[in-house]
Amino acid sequence: MLLEKGKDIAMRKQKRPLGILGTGDFARALAKRLYFSGYEIVLGSRRPEEKSFSAIDECLCNMRLVTTEECIKSVSIIFLAIHAENYKDLLEEHADKLDGKIIVDVSNRDRPSETKSNAEYLQRLIPNASVVKAFNVISAYAMENDYNTSSRQVFIASNNELSRNAISNIARNMNFTPLDFGGLFAARRIEKHPLRLFPDWRGPCGFTVAVFNIWLLYLIYIYYIEKTVYRWEQIFIKVMNKAICMTGITILSVTYLASSFAASLQLYYGTKHIRFSRWLDKWLKNRKQLGLVAFILITIHVMMSILIMSPTYLRSWFHSTKLVIPHNVTDVHVINNINWMTWKGEAACLTGIFAFILLCFVCVSTLPSVTDTLNWREWRFVQSKIGHVALFLSIVHVLVMGIPGWAKNPLKIYKSITFLSSILPWATIMLKILYSLPCIDRYLTKIRKGWERQEERCRGKCVRPKKEGYVIMNADDRSDAISGVCPCPGDTVQMVTLDTTSCGCSNGDIV
């Protein structure tokens, strides 16, 4: 037993050899990271005699720099750190020597592609080798600096499961988190990842810009076109602050309205197994982005409001003092002019401050470091309960400023910006209260636990997919439930029931 343990310890201490073809920035950063993770590194270059790593980094002095052929012969796992356009020139003459070896492709594309990837192209060049796509989402800076805060996930794809496992173990030893994406066709998705530019933020930001423009144009109409209320130089802070505030509360209400829409559909269909429409599914998935955008807008509104916090701009918030100086007065008169806030100003500030503080709690809870410390019940309490309370206080903040004006001109309430901007938030709060009633909440909870009103029927209707390889299920057609087949009119893909209550694809060619 002692001898066996001694052998295991000796084998662990022995450095495992790995090869890297390429001597660029990423290759050197990868070599350093692998070296400090306990591997023996062999760097391969077409002209090794012209390279001098000691002048670049003294850590690279501990690594062997050899020719490409020698590097391929000496190791069984090779990282290919060169551009894809150079694959054929470099590997064509060494294709027979790569048989049975694991080749890790770390390259990226200039443009995303749905039909091909660098890794699949490499596999065609060396069909007898096992190509693994990995490490392309890690930058050279992240590779070299262990203390950085960038993503530490390594996406891995290969047609050989043993090769995927081997590279996953190497990623773990490098203090990264491997994610297995399966076959090499997934390399298209992996290579597309570094080329994405905030894809989850495009919809929320575009929607926010549209809502902001609508409110701003309405404000310009009522304050400058219908009746001149402000000067044009006040549009930058005074008027813009109103547009930002109205957009912020609208986006915040839209964030929480999505769950009410989903609950309405589940109550209508009486099951949770029917998929939501694409627009609702996307809406639900973008709630975090919408909430953060709303928080940013409300923060800007708070800062702008501080800038204009004076009786000159907010006259209805402060008591006014009237000074009357009589004619022909020769004596000196000392007048103490002290203005303080009215109930309207006090209440608006109080509700606004509390709403903003609660929104700060909700926003902070979305940070990964904070989310990891919360259990599911705590996270839902912060995101749902505290979030709705913050929305309610925001509505009260708006109503406090608007109700005195509504009382003076009740016939023109439909033109009031405080009235218009509070309609959607009030609808959101009322729906939340409705679905929180014990009778409805119990019924909705029962559905979400798997209960169905009409389990015996196949309620799926096939719809022609927008993208090849996907099938969408709707819930309108039950005519063929007895026969167990849900037809797609005019389509070659048929949907059949896998059991008495569910429908699935019978075409095995669909991925």
Provide a concise account of the structure shown.
The chain is α/β, with parallel strands linked by helices and 511 residues long. The chain has helices at 2-13, 25-36, 68-74, 87-91, 118-125, 140-144, 161-173, 187-192, 199-225, 238-269, 278-285, 287-307, 343-364, 368-371, 376-408, 417-436, 438-448; strands at residues 16-21, 39-45, 64-67, 77-80, 102-105, 130-133, 153-158, 177-180, 461-463, 472-474, 485-486, 495-497, 503-505.
Give helix % range: 40-55%
Radius of gyration: 33 Å
> Number of DSSP helices?
17
Structural class: alpha/beta
| Mean pLDDT rating | 83
Order of strands in the sheet with most strands: 3-2-1-4-5-6-7-8
- Note the main sheet: 8 strands, mixed
Description:
48% of the residues lie in helices and 10% in strands. Helix 10 (238-269) runs antiparallel to helix 12. An eight-stranded mixed β-sheet has the order 3-2-1-4-5-6-7-8, sandwiched between helices. Strands 11-12-13 form a three-stranded antiparallel β-sheet, with no helix packed on it. The longest helix has 33 residues, at 376-408. It has helices spanning 2-13, 25-36, 68-74, 87-91, 118-125, 140-144, 161-173, 187-192, 199-225, 238-269, 278-285, 287-307, 343-364, 368-371, 376-408, 417-436, 438-448; strands spanning 16-21, 39-45, 64-67, 77-80, 102-105, 130-133, 153-158, 177-180, 461-463, 472-474, 485-486, 495-497, 503-505. A hairpin with a 5-residue loop joins strand 12 (495-497) and strand 13 (503-505). The chain is of the alpha/beta class. It has 17 helices and 13 strands. The radius of gyration is 33 Å and the shape is elongated.
